[in-house]
Structure formats: structure tokens, C-alpha cells
Specification:
2 copies of one chain form a homodimer.
Chain A: H1 12-20, E1 29-32, E2 45-46, E3 56-57, E4 61-64, E5 78-86, E6 100-104, E7 116-119, E8 123-125, E9 131-134, E10 144-145, E11 156-158, H2 166-174, E12 179-182, E13 187-192, E14 197-198, E15 211-212, H3 215-225, E16 229-233, H4 240-253, E17 256-260, H5 265-278, E18 279-284, E19 288-289, E20 295-299, E21 302-306, H6 311-330, E22 339-344, E23 348-349, E24 355-364, E25 390-394, H7 403-407, E26 410-414, E27 420-421, E28 426-431, E29 441-445, H8 449-456, E30 461-464, H9 468-477, E31 482-487, H10 490-497, H11 501-504, E32 508-521, H12 532-537, E33 542-545, H13 550-566, H14 570-576, E34 583-584, H15 589-595, E35 601-605, H16 606-612, E36 615-628, H17 636-646, H18 649-653, E37 658-660
């Protein structure tokens, strides 16, 4: 096997330098004002006209010669002849001679002779309407904006490098600019590698090991966010010639080419060889986790960065090294880094010998969890002002998992020489963006269809369907706000099996419901399965759920009862079931295996069977309970969940086999 | 005069409620994944396939039956027959029987029979290549990602209301989704009112009181920023029928119609009548400054908000009341409010009786300005961690000025019953966006073409060309970092005129240059002006600069010298000059008046005359000096400016009449 080894890894600093040495900066371009928002000015803009372009009334009233009002007031008004009127958008047809005035509206041209405006509230029309009493004294310039007072011709209005927000658009409008020269948008080509990748929307053949191409769209979205213009190139296959031609083609059309997609060694090898032979390789391999197999170089006419294949690695390398270069090329300022301080909720080992960027989730603890050492709290990026209560937990499902992207809020950087982060240790979390806020509710536990619907009505909840057993374990560790558990009645269960963990957790019960569970079978139940005994006595293939699920606990209870009835050992019953150990992860997975023809019966819920159009053999009911961390019952998200659980009847009505708890 | 009076003003809270009562929410829409970034999910997305869709090797190595490796290690390797290979994207053609293994690459399908992968680094090929020595023991599942382990079919992937960042795009890609249902983008029509308004890019007739339409593009950019889709409607004129038809047409095409543009009473009256008669008026007039004349209602089929005419007022009302409604309709979360604490640099009166939103600028003070009371510092939104040093100064050039938009960083809200903000008082500034950072350098003073070019090379400077005298005044107040002054040699000047303020300021001199000043005359000098005496002795019309400018000080010096020579009083000389009191604001303004035929000579610089193709009569040289606040010399922006001034020779070389200071 010939595989590229990355023995001489570069440091993160060297990788940064290598990327900085590439030139991605495109030429400036001229855009219409209506499309200029968010762009960065490439030119310096001087005013080439006065704004306003004339002496302008800034109030409704009468244009006067200020001198005519001197010394007058409420008790001794000046009386002036009205000689006409000037409205906004008109050329004045009158001249204000001594002793006269002209009606004027806001925005109108101050007529010749006048040097001030008296506001209408300080005037009175005489009965005949020909004369105006002015009940105040004004100074020259009062209620007048002189020509050029906003900005005068020749003055510097905006400098190069200015980001154009609505405010700058306003000034450019005032100057009459309908187009501006802005920094060009770096064009970033994304070349997808790996014969196993299929574009989303196309048909996937899992049996051939195909997977959807995650990195292309993810990185494209990242390019857009950084101010670049992403171009997806069609996949060319992993042979050397085709890949080489594609990379060279992309380099001619783009300022930067990224290759991304595959974790397969052959695809990586091909790209590596193309860059070495048809470009220039500046760096391969960086001492960072995730992201080690990063390439930096040039190919034909553009800069090149090879991203690792795993989505988490690819996005991490992109965010850490590539996005800053795209922003720089686009002239965009570095975004204000949003950092939140928190405490590690659990110990995290890190004996890697390279810098680790650990994706982490955040959860706001309750008030009683507050601890003394609050001096370092940054507070600003923390909406609730409770940085001292922020718990930080690692989200590490492996670089291959895309879900860990959405289950994390940011990244903790762990130095190469740090062996571990202790539970309770203060850490700084770089949020994925300054807008990231910790979820209002962090729940873990059973994947229950009714609970899942309740989540739809909550604001920014996070829920990890890790199963009832694992959910309770985490609740005991104190990290999540709530755990959802399902399973047989606890008192009975713990009395029988001794596994009464649920009952012993010091949690606050927020309520729940029951759900009907049993065996999901093909539609029409062709093998005429009647109950659990058939799985033992007949030649039926079964698919189980994993040991964390409440369904599995209920099944275990039913197996124990059956063993008691038969007077045999529980293990004997289990051993007779073909598939008791064939456990799958999600609540619909056994049913889907059955429908795919891989099994005759699967552990599942009536609601799942109905949803998927399968048959169902009921075995019992189990309780689903929502349990809260006792320190968090006052937290807004937990309170909102409690209300949702209390009002869950509408949701339960729509789900087969669900009943409110008595 | 019939004008709408806003006597019964609503409170800001009532205005907010009125806007909230409008329904702007558009229908959800389906967008391709490539265009989904930044949108908000309208559907709940459940996985409808397992990810990965098969048991997947997560490392390069050999697929084995774990049991075959049990008990083996470096000293006692297991030897397995190699029966084939599986690459990513291939359907396995082998089965791993006991005692065998298959080469496997990362991402490939685990072949039947195998339940683990041994990483290649722990294996050795035998000499003949047919067998593999496995130097470790692995457990079932090692280096394998099981089908559905990332996310399983039927599991909840993303909830409605989720904002789609690159991370969520990644998960949607993994699920094979190439389109998603997202919250619709509210369409916001912008109807421009006021006969005096001209679209940017079109020809402007200032003599008729025309001005460029600032609000349309500014508000459109604000709509876009808030997540709406702005539509500019062509201006229809201010007559009732045309305006009514236009508003009704816009209402049929938009979720919200904004009218915006004119300050003229007639235009405002027309819109007011249209809404009253062809729609429903919910609110007119709100007790807030700026922004009082706000309208809220419905017109035909859509929601309606009438924005005030002045740009600052329009954008303030838009940001305060309308943008939140657009964000809500688009399903966007409220942006994290960025607030910075600072101290008022000067006293600000506010006896208005209504809530005031004061646009303010920020400047970071120097370390020696730090003051004791730092406990309330929020810090987070303050890049330098120096909130206690942030000085806040009001930017109030009147609502009619567009430049005050770009000279401010945010807004301080002053309650209706607050009479004033004291200098030194702590205030909270709501930044215009969380990305706003105080300028790196805040300068004030003379509008000098050379200095203006130096600014182009600095990162985010702010410079207000208020003139030398006003610049020095502000430097003495301690607000800006630097002041740029121009004028006659100070020692002479102060000795002669007693006006030696510049010399007496305790400022640090960062260097400077000299510039040639004199009279700008039409090209070819048709009136054969030879010097200052001609302006006194002949019938020539002159245009002066304002009293704050250094040029005016140099002229004053020259006038004094001439008066001395003639043995007359200075006032006599000035009185004989037609136009000594005709002063204009910006450094090019007198020259432009001359070129427009309004005058025979104007005070100005040689560089200006050359730039505008005018003639020039030199009268002398004056020094331009850059002076720093002594507390701020260590500030990075000031240090960068000092370097720029020291290296200014290249800039000076390109400017006529400029010389380095000796």
C-alpha cells in the first residue's frame, strides 16, 4: 500500500504563514450602489459637489432677513409683507427685500435676500393674509443649512477600506454616486474529490459505499460567509489526468482553489501528486487535530489549499486558516471574535502532542451552581451575564460525524503540551460566530416522537438522543438541563432487576406520557407473529435497539417475565432469539430494517409502525418521563419545557399509541 | 398654510406595539441548498436515511474479525490471510472468513464477516504479500463507524427556526437534501416621496432645490441587512392620485411598504392623506428625537410605515422600529446587541421632553486617562478591553446631515426626563452593529490634501475637517487623539496678534510640512490679479474661508502686514475687500466659486488650483502640523500616524506647493 505519510508536520503558525504567502486578492470592481452593501470600498471617495447644493430651509416657516427681526418678541412682533412662497424642489421666484418675507417649506431653496428662517410656530398671519407677524428674533443662519454644510465639494468623504453599511450608502447617495469601486470578491473554486461522493439530491447507493458530498456545500457556505464567491466544480473522478485537468481549469477561473471531499487515500494521493507535479507544494500536514492532512501550495495560476476529507476537519481547517485569507483578500475586517468563558463540565484528556481544537457545546447552569471565582468573566458575549455559570462540554463524535458540527457552539483550543482539561477548569470558547448563543434548553435521552414534536415549539433547544440510560448518566454528571427517559415502571423494574438507576436520580419530574411498544413487522404481518414467544420458539430474525434505549429496557423486562413464566434462565431466552444482539441506534432503525427485508420483526413503537406503513404486534406500554436537573428548574428554557409537557395533550392526540400519564 | 401637526404623540412603546400588530410574515419558500446559507428553516428536518449508510472504515488498514486478534500484540502477532481489498466507493467483493482479512481504505464499506479495522500502522505484510501480521488486539467496532452512527433514519436532525450556517448546510448535505423549506423573505417596497428628490446618478439641479434621494438606497440597504428583500419604486410625484396609485400598487407586491424621502410638508401631507383614505392609520407621530413624524398603518393589502424625511431620522426610526419587525417576519433572531460602556467626553444637554437617540462617536482614551470606577465595564464588545477608557462624544450635525451617519458609531438613548448628560458620566452606547469598532485614530482639524492622502494608508481612521482653530479647541477638551493645524508661524503670529492658542496647547508635535497658499483665480488669470493689494484697491470679488481654517489665519496675518505697511487699521483693509466676509467651509470651496464665475479670486492652495485647472497667485507658505493628545502618544493608531507623517515625503512629492518641514 502506498500512502502519503505526514511525518514532518508543520506547526499551526507555519501553516498560517504559508496561507498568508499566497496571493488571492482579486482586482477591484465597480458595482451599482444598490448592490454595494457589505462590500469594501477600494477607492477613496471625495465629494464632488456641495451637500446640500444650496442654502436650504431646515424648518417650515418664513424666509426673512434676520436683521428685520432683531429686537422683536412675543409682545412686540415684527410685521413683514409676504411676497411669495418657495416650496421644496422649486427655483425661488421671489427676492426677500428689507421688510418682506416669503413662505418657505423644509428643504426649499432660501430665496435671494433672505438669510434666516423663522419657524411657522413663531408667526401669525394677519387677517388679510398679506402680512406676517414674527414673534421672535432670529440670527442669520437660523433654521438654514448652508450649501456644503453637510459635506463640501473637494472634502474627503470615505476612505479606501471602508465597509459599506446603510450609513455609508446614505452618504454615497447624498453625493449622487450610483456606482462605487469596491474590493473584488475572491473567486474560490471547490473541487470535490473521491469516487465515493454523490451530490445531495442525487441517488445514493450505500451498498457501494457511496456517501453524500458534505464538504462541497459546507465549504461553499463558509466561503460565502467569509466574503468570497464559491464555485462548485463537477466531480471529475479520481484518476490523475482528469483531476489534474480539473484543478488547472479551476485555477484559471479562480483566485483560490480548494480541494475537498474524500477521506480515501487514493483520492488524497491523486490530488497530492497533481499539486506536486503541476503546481507547487508549500506545506503538507499540520500538527493540529482535527485537520492534520492539510495541503498548501499553488496550482497553475492560482493559490491552492487542500482540505482534509472529514467534514469536521475540513471546516476546522477552513475556518482556522482559509477563511481569514479570504476575508483579507476581500478587504473585510476580521470579525470581532466572540469568546465566552466557561468551566469544563467534565474532564477531557488530550495527550495528542499536537494542538487540538475541541468542538464544544455550552450550557448555562442554574443560579445555585454559581461558584466564587468570577473575576475573569468576560460577560460581554454572554447574553445572560452569567459566564461564571457557563458549562462547557466536549462534542466529540469523531471527525467523520456531521452531527457534531451542529451539536457544538464553538471550539476550545488545547495546546500540544496540555495533557488534560480538568472538570471545573476555566476555558475560553471561541464561538463559531459572534451570534452564537447557548441553546435555551439542553436535553438528552430517549428519542421519543412526541417529545421531538414538543421541541419544535421551543426556541433554540438542543436535544441529543443518546438513549434513556446514557441520558440519566449525563443528568447525574450535571451537564444537561433535562433528561428524557422511557422504560418499564421504575419501582417494579428496580425491584425485579435491581437496575433502578432512574428512580434513584435526584431529578425533578416535569411530567410525561405513555407509549405503546412492541414488534414492528411487515405490513399484513405475513409471518403471523403474535408475540415475544414467537421470536424464541420460531425461526424469526429480530432487530433490537441498543442498550441505552428505554425500549430495550422494556424488552428486557418482558424477557425476564417470560423466563420466569417458563422457569428458565433469562440468558436462555435471550440466546434463543436470533437478533437480540443485533442492536441499532435510532428509534425507527429496527422498523426500517424490517421494511428493507433484513428482518422479520423489530423492536419499536406503534407510532413508528403506523408512520412507516408497517404492521405492529403490541407488547406493552411504557412511561416516558421528562426529568430536570434540580438546579435548573428556574431556567427559562426548562420552565418553557415544563409548560409544553403540561400542554402536550394536543401532540399526544395525533400520535398512535400515546396516552397522557395518569 | 395647512400642515399636519403631531400634537398627540405616541410613546416609543406604543409605536413598537403598533408595528408589531402589523403582519409582514411571508409564506415559506423552498430554496436550493446552495442558496440556503443565512436563511431560517421553516420545516423540521428528520433524517430519512442512515448516515453513514453502511458500516464504514474510519481508518486505512485491514478489515478483520476482532476475535481473530484477541490476545495478540507486538511480540505475538496474529497472522491472517489477505483475501482482497475494498476501496472507498466500491461494493465489497470479498467476505472476511475466520483467519482472513481484507485491505480497506478510509471510508470504504466494511465487508461481510468483518467487525473491526486494524490500522495499517499496526500491521506488517509478509514477504510474499499474501499474509498480514496484526500486531495488536482490536475489539468489535474499532475503527469502524456503524451505519446510522452519525445520524439514523427517523431521527430529528434540525428544528424549525434554525438559522442555516455552514454547519447546518453540512448536516443537510449529509442527508442528501438539495433543497430546504425556509422562512420567506419579506418583500419591502420603498416609495420615495418629494418632488425635490433626484436618484443618484441622475443630473442634479441645485438651483431648483433638488437634492439626491438619500433615504431610498439607505433604507433599502437596511432592509437587506435585516433580512428583507427591498424593492425601490420609481418616484411618482407628489400629487394625491399618483401617490395613492403607487402606494396601492406597491402594497399588492410587497409585505410592507415604506414611504421615505421628503421632508417637505406637501409630500408628507399627500402620503398622510393617502393612508388615511385608502388604508388605515394606526399611529402618527412618536415622542422620540429624531423621528417624530413617523406613520404606522395599513395600505390596501400590506403593512405600511412612513419614515421621516431626514436621513438620520429615517434610519433611526427604521433601525428602532422597522428592522426588528422585518427580522421577526424573516424568522431571524434579534442580533446580539452590542453595547459598549463609556464616559461622556463633554456635557450634552437634553431638555426635550421626549426620548432622544443621540448619535455618538467613540474614542479610546490613553492609559493615563484611566479612572477608578471600572466595575461596570462590560468589556466583551470592546476589542481593547479598555471600556473604562472609552470616551463618548455626541455627533449632532442635525437630522438633515448625512455625514453624521458615518461619523457616529452608535446611539445613546436619553430618557425624556433626563435634562443633561454630564461630562464624565457613564453611558451605554448601542453600536450600529456588533461589528462596529471605535476608529483606531480620531483626528480633527484642518482639511489638508496631503494629510488626507496619509489617512488613505491608515486602518479605519476617523477625521473631522473642522478647521485648525476648532480642532485645537477640541484637542484641548481632550476628545480627539490628534489635531491637524495650519497657519502662519506660531511664534510670530502669537507675538503679533496675541492669538497664540496653538503654541500654548500642551500637545505633542508629530511633525508636518509646509504648503503654498494664495489666491485661486480663473485659468489664465484674466483679471491679472497680482496680489492681496488688488483685492483692496480694485473692484474684484473675493471668496474667503471660514474663521476656523488655517488658511484664513494666514490671510489674516497677511492682511495685518499690509495694514502695517500702509499705516492703516486692519479693519479698514478688510472693509475694502469685497468678499472678506463671504466665507465658505471646505478647502476647495472658494476655488470652485471662482470657477463657477461667482468670484474673481478665492483663498486657496496651489495644489487645489492645479487640481481644478485654475490659475494661482502665490501669497506665502504656511506650516501644517500634526499634534497629538499627550495622553495618547502610545495608542497604536497615533503611533501609526506618526510613522506615516515621518514617511510623508512620497505623498508631498506628488503635491504642488508642498515641502517637508525643515
Amino acid at each position: 500500500m502506498s500512502r502519503k505519510e505526514f511525518r514532518d508536520l508543520s506547526t499551526p503558525a507555519e501553516a498560517r504563514e504559508a496561507v498568508e504567502s499566497l496571493d488571492l486578492t482579486p482586482d477591484p470592481e465597480t458595482v451599482p450602489l444598490a448592490e454595494a452593501r457589505g462590500r469594501v470600498l477600494a477607492e477613496r471617495v471625495d465629494a464632488d459637489l456641495d451637500v446640500p447644493g444650496f442654502d436650504r430651509a431646515s424648518m417650515d416657516g418664513y424666509a426673512v432677513r434676520a436683521r428685520d427681526t432683531f429686537g422683536h418678541d412675543e409682545t412686540d412682533p415684527a410685521t413683514l409683507d409676504r411676497v411669495g412662497a418657495v416650496h421644496a424642489g422649486e427655483e425661488p421666484s421671489v427676492t426677500v427685500e428689507p421688510g418682506t418675507c416669503a413662505e418657505i417649506s423644509t428643504g426649499a431653496v432660501l430665496p435671494d435676500g433672505a438669510d434666516a428662517v423663522v419657524i411657522v410656530e413663531r408667526t401669525t398671519e394677519t387677517a388679510d393674509g398679506d402680512r406676517i407677524e414674527v414673534r421672535t428674533s432670529v440670527a442669520p443662519g437660523d433654521s438654514v443649512m448652508f450649501a456644503g454644510a453637510d459635506i463640501a465639494a473637494g472634502a474627503r468623504a470615505l476612505g479606501p477600506g471602508t465597509e459599506l453599511t446603510p450609513r455609508e450608502i446614505g452618504l454615497l447617495s447624498a453625493l449622487g454616486r450610483d456606482a462605487v469601486e469596491v474590493r473584488g470578491t475572491p473567486v474560490v473554486g471547490i473541487v470535490s474529490t473521491g469516487d465515493e461522493l454523490v451530490r445531495p439530491g442525487e441517488e445514493l447507493h450505500g451498498e457501494r459505499g457511496q456517501i453524500y458530498d458534505v464538504n462541497s456545500y459546507t465549504v461553499a457556505a463558509g466561503v460565502e460567509e467569509a466574503g468570497g464567491d464559491p464555485r462548485l466544480y463537477p466531480h471529475a473522478g479520481d484518476d490523475y489526468e482528469a483531476m489534474g485537468d480539473l484543478l488547472v481549469e479551476a485555477s484559471e477561473e479562480c483566485d483560490l482553489v480548494l480541494s475537498s471531499g474524500s477521506t480515501s487515500a487514493s483520492a488524497v494521493d491523486v490530488v497530492y501528486r497533481v499539486i506536486e507535479e503541476r503546481g507547487e507544494l508549500l506545506l503538507h500536514g499540520v500538527s493540529i487535530k482535527p485537520g492534520k492532512p492539510m495541503l498548501v501550495g499553488r496550482v497553475a495560476e492560482s493559490a491552492y489549499v487542500g482540505l482534509p476529507g472529514y467534514p469536521v476537519s475540513a471546516l476546522t481547517i477552513f475556518r482556522t486558516f482559509v477563511a481569514p485569507a479570504i476575508r483579507r483578500a476581500a478587504g473585510r475586517p476580521e470579525p470581532r471574535t466572540a469568546t465566552v468563558e466557561g468551566r469544563m463540565a467534565v474532564r477531557e484528556r488530550s495527550d495528542e502532542g499536537r494542538t487540538r481544537l475541541v468542538p464544544v457545546g455550552l450550557v448555562e447552569g442554574g443560579p445555585s451552581e454559581a461558584v466564587g471565582d468570577d473575576d475573569g468573566a468576560t460577560g460581554g458575549a454572554d447574553a445572560d451575564g452569567a459566564a461564571g455559570n457557563t458549562l462547557v462540554y466536549p462534542v466529540d463524535k469523531g471527525s467523520g460525524a456531521t452531527t457534531s458540527l451542529v451539536e457544538a457552539d464553538g471550539v476550545v483550543t488545547v495546546d500540544a503540551d496540555t495533557e488534560y482539561l480538568a472538570a471545573g477548569e476555566r476555558v475560553a470558547v471561541d464561538l463559531f460566530s459572534p451570534d452564537v448563543r447557548p441553546p435555551t434548553l439542553f436535553g438528552v435521552g430517549e428519542d421519543d416522537p412526541a417529545f421531538s414534536r414538543l421541541l419544535d415549539g421551543l426556541d433554540r433547544p438542543r436535544y441529543l438522543a443518546v438513549g434513556s440510560r446514557e441520558g440519566l448518566r449525563r443528568l447525574r454528571e450535571g451537564v444537561p438541563d433535562v433528561a428524557v427517559t422511557a422504560g418499564p415502571d421504575e419501582r417494579e423494574s428496580s425491584a425485579r432487576s435491581g437496575d433502578g438507576t432512574a428512580a434513584r436520580v435526584d431529578a425533578v419530574d416535569l411530567g410525561g406520557w405513555t407509549r405503546e411498544w412492541g414488534l414492528v413487522v411487515p405490513a399484513g404481518n405475513p409471518r403471523e407473529v403474535t408475540g415475544l414467544a414467537d421470536l424464541i420458539d420460531r425461526d424469526l430474525r429480530f432487530v433490537n435497539r441498543d442498550a441505552n434505549s428505554g425500549l430495550r429496557a422494556s424488552l428486557g423486562e418482558a424477557v425476564a417475565t417470560l423466563a420466569d413464566e417458563r422457569g428458565v434462565d433469562r440468558r436462555e431466552v435471550v440466546g434463543a432469539m436470533d437478533g437480540f444482539d443485533r442492536s441499532v441506534r435510532a428509534h425507527e432503525s429496527p422498523a426500517r430494517r424490517v421494511l428493507a427485508g433484513d428482518a422479520d420483526a423489530g423492536l419499536g413503537l406503534r407510532v413508528t409502525a403506523e408512520r412507516l406503513g408497517a404492521g405492529f404486534v403490541p407488547l406493552g406500554e411504557e412511561a416516558v418521563r421528562v426529568r430536570a436537573n434540580p438546579d435548573r428548574t428556574e431556567k427559562a428554557g426548562v420552565a418553557a419545557l415544563r409548560r409544553a409537557v403540561e400542554g402536550a395533550d394536543g401532540v399526544l392526540d395525533g400520535l398512535a399509541g400515546y396516552e397522557p400519564l395518569e
